[in-house]
Amino acid sequence: MAAAVPALKHWRTALERVEKFVSPLYFTDCNLRGRLFGQRHPVAALSSFLTPERLRYQDAVQQDFRPAQVGDRFGPTWWTCWFRVELIIPEAWIGQEIHLCWESDGEGLVWRDGEPVQGLTTEGEKNSYILTNRLGEGDPRSLTLYVEVACSGLLGAGKGTMIAPPDPEKMFQLKRAELAVFHRDIHLLLVDLELLLGIAKGLGKDNQRSFQALYTANQMVNVCDPARPETFPVAQALASHFFGQRGGDSQHTLHAMGHCHIDTAWLWPFKETVRKCARSWVTAVKLMEQNADFIFVCSQAQQLEWVKSHYPSLYAQLQEFACRGQFVPVGGTWVEMDGNLPSGEAMVRQFLQGQRFFLQEFGKLCSEFWLPDTFGYSAQLPQIMRGCGITRFLTQKLSWNLVNSFPHHTFLWEGLDGSPVLVHFPPGDSYGMQGNVEEGHPGLGGPTHCPSFQVLKTVTNNQDKGRANHSAFLFGFGDGGGGPTQTMLDRLRRLDHTDGLPRVQLSSPDQLFQALESDQGKLCTWVGELFLELHNGTYTTHAQIKKGNRECERILHDVELLSSLALARGTHFLYPAAQLQHLWRLLLLNQFHDVVTGSCIQLVAEDAMKHYEDIRSHGNTLLSAAAGALCAGEPGPKGLLVVNTLPWKRTEVLALPNPGGAQTLALVTVPSIGYAPAPPAPTSPQPLLPQQPVSVMQEVRRPLLRVLWGTSLHGICWAVLGGQEVRIQAILAQCPPLSHRKPVLAQAGTLAVGSEGGLRGSAWFLLQISPSSRLSQEVVLDIGCPYVRFHTEVYWHEAHKFLKVEFPARVRSPQATYEIQFGHLQRPTHYNTSWDWARFEVWTHRWMDLSEHGFGLALLNDCKYGASVRGNILSLSLLRAPKAPDATADMGCHKFTYALMPHEGSFQDAGVIPAAYSLNFPLLVLPAPGPAPTTAWSAFSLSSPAVVLETIKQAETITQKRTLVLRLYEAHGSHVNCWVHTSLPVQEAVLCDLLERRDPAGHLPFQDSRLKVTFSPFQVRSLLLVLQPPST
């Protein structure tokens, strides 16, 4: 017999031959893919019931189930359909692997014997549940399962597009429900063939190893007959020979970790996230049971707390696998928060609450910060991380930059104060590697999932070749997709150490960072913020959420401060630790990166507003209780207490309530972190203080309001309306920076003087912005106040518009200063480079400043975050009008205040920082339940204006009931020694970290009611003050 003649060589022909052999679309009647499942059998019985509620299993199974069948439709959006699935396995299937094959719209969870066992999601490639790996002689043949199907997709229920508002009437369909025999040997052959195809495509025609992969795959097709299982071992041996060829020692190593990033809320509400966690994590548990080397990482303490409450048996399994080292909690925070908008103290609390939870529930603190998805990273994060016991950071969102490619994947990040942390961006630019073959030809029936492309991209895309030889490879379907699959694990194991590819090992975050730390001396350093050049509108969208965030941060600050002082001065006051923890966790939940930023659907925004209302309501109750306890036992008549929660003395005009309901203006002086009795209502005109009184004038010729004060400030005069000094601009939300800018040219409908002067001068006006929107504004200047306030009310009904206010200043500077957490930084006012103009819209907190030598102009606000300075124009973003994913975002009435503050000298010396604090922390006028004190009292004062006492609270540790935590930071950017004076009965003072752990060498001498603390620029320091036992 003549020898076989080799076929002609043709790359595309060979490639398509293999592709069609494994295709799920073409030739499935005779190719290998079509034999993956063997015999099939219908379910014995199927019934269902619909509910608008998210019921617990125990309640759901008691409901009235009615007959159902494949093809039935159910819904609408956000409802739940429960299916009862009764199964009888054929006797002939003994010895086989049996699956329940299930395909439906929505996200499913299989329940067996009263416990969740696996998630089902078409998008997450989880369309079957393994009933048994091998049906035994004595195994039961009949059983009943329940499948809980949420009427929402993996990414919500957008109408038409993913990011569109949800379709409330969307219906869902059950498409498949049957038993089937699964052929594991065919599955493994498919894994090998898809990998070989991926290697051939990924390495390309110029690579020898690529041809070897394609040749091997072609040979496997030659020897493998899908209808004859006895041919499979020969094909498997060919693949094993190829994958058994090892690479060299210089290969890049990928640390593969199972991952399932789940947004705590986004295109679905918080309550649905609870179920997404259960669906995904129970699937990961099954993989951990079957694969002892599989490691699954999980962040966000809030999600774990939800699972602990709603799925206790699943949570116990997670704790068990954590003890084995397979389930690895990471991140150290309560949620994956936004990296820009939360205050410095709120960021500290993310770690404090998160790390304490992980320590309590899993026995260890997290050593790495895990924030793969957010909208930017504050320059103070490195210092906050290190203060919470974290020196490692993993993220990847800067790969989404719209303009510039970030130059590193592994580097040292140096924060505002100089604190360094090791940062790693997975070079595959993804936190959910799924093996999508973008370069493939799905239309030809090629494999749609092959990790060799992503494996190769991780190496070729790495920006730090030669410096770092290790990278993270995070694999799994996120947002409820169930995380990793067995197929992914099988593929990655096959690529363990194959020649021509990087080495792949199933690993953990600790192993990854240990490997990176060994080469840390070779890495480059990035200094300052990590700015995301995308999603700039999130600094402004959903203004009510932004306002709630700022207000609730203030409320919790004030409650903690007054409660701490009441604890220190009283003998019976009980610090409301449990209530405060609950309120803080609500606030931290709302600071998730798709909530506080406003990038969520309407249901989420409504839930967030309810959370803020709870914080306001309960917070104000706690505030009144603390104030009452603070002044208990003081002599004096019943009256009002004026409280200052800031660390400097304040003299301000205050509107005090009168018995008849009216208000009286009074000039009040309150010491730092203390109180003063409210002055009695004046019976006669008060003599003016040496300060120049306020005056307001209205010109007759045109509607122009002039606010005049301080002749020393270069004779500055602002035309608030009618001139060119101040303009309100409307800008299209999605247009390029500074394009399509449209001034609101309408004349004021009304302009009137409110108060002509004395203690307070004010005027107000109305402005029709458009036929649908209008603005009213009161311009207020108080005696002695360094800024003019703009109390603003807007009725806003627009589409795709952006409302800004702009202040041209007679100032020239190449950079402007913006407040961030625990400090400030400079950004350019020009567009010299692409890195400059990519920051056409930036974020700030309470203030921004544009200064030249000797003079400057600061713009303050009480609830805004979006801002910019270009040239000499300071711009504050007020409102947006996007229509997706929430068509109602920002519609309605808004009230907010911003302020303009001219100053001589630097902004530090002029007091811009305390002025912005004062705008955001108004003096509190609280009714004293008993006699109000007759004299002023101060708990703390500081010797240096460069230092801010940000927080006073009780220590978290139960054993430290009478121990206070003080958090201070250096705000000017200087080295300084600061004396902290206190009137509290302090027994001991010691430095601690942000987790409130004592510094063994941090004892601070406390004498003459004061102690000295040393600061470097922008350094945050925390102190433990142990109070003396209360006198009996």
UniProtKB/TrEMBL annotation:
Question: Sorted alphabetically, which SUPFAM superfamilies does this protein's record hold?
Answer: Families 57/38 glycoside transferase middle domain, Galactose mutarotase-like, Glycoside hydrolase/deacetylase
Q: Give the reaction(s) catalysed.
A: Hydrolysis of terminal, non-reducing alpha-D-mannose residues in alpha-D-mannosides
Q: Which UniProt keywords apply?
A: Cobalt, Cytoplasm, Glycosidase, Hydrolase, Metal-binding
Would the keyword Hydrolase be found if you checked this record's keyword annotation?
A: yes
Output one GO BP term.
mannose metabolic process
Instruction: Tell me which domain of life the UniProt entry assigns to the organism this sequence originates from.
Output: Eukaryota
Q: Which GO terms describe its molecular function?
A: alpha-mannosidase activity; carbohydrate binding; metal ion binding
Look up the EC number in the record and give it.
3.2.1.24
Q: Which InterPro entries match?
A: Ams1-like_N, Gal_mutarotase_sf_dom, GH38_C, Glyco_hydro/deAcase_b/a-brl, Glyco_hydro_38_C, Glyco_hydro_38_cen, Glyco_hydro_38_cen_sf, Glyco_hydro_38_N
Q: Which residues form the Glycoside hydrolase family 38 central domain?
A: 533-612
Record's subcellular location: Cytoplasm
Q: Name one GO cellular component term.
A: cytoplasm
Q: Which cofactor does it need?
A: Co(2+)
Q: What does this protein do?
A: Cleaves alpha 1,2-, alpha 1,3-, and alpha 1,6-linked mannose residues from glycoproteins. Involved in the degradation of free oligosaccharides in the cytoplasm.
Question: Per its UniProt record, what PANTHER family does this chain match?
Answer: ALPHA-MANNOSIDASE 2C1
Family as reported in the entry's similarity comment: Belongs to the glycosyl hydrolase 38 family.
From the Swiss-Prot or TrEMBL record, give the protein name: Alpha-mannosidase 2C1
Q: Which organism is this entry from? A: Cavia porcellus
Gene symbol?
MAN2C1
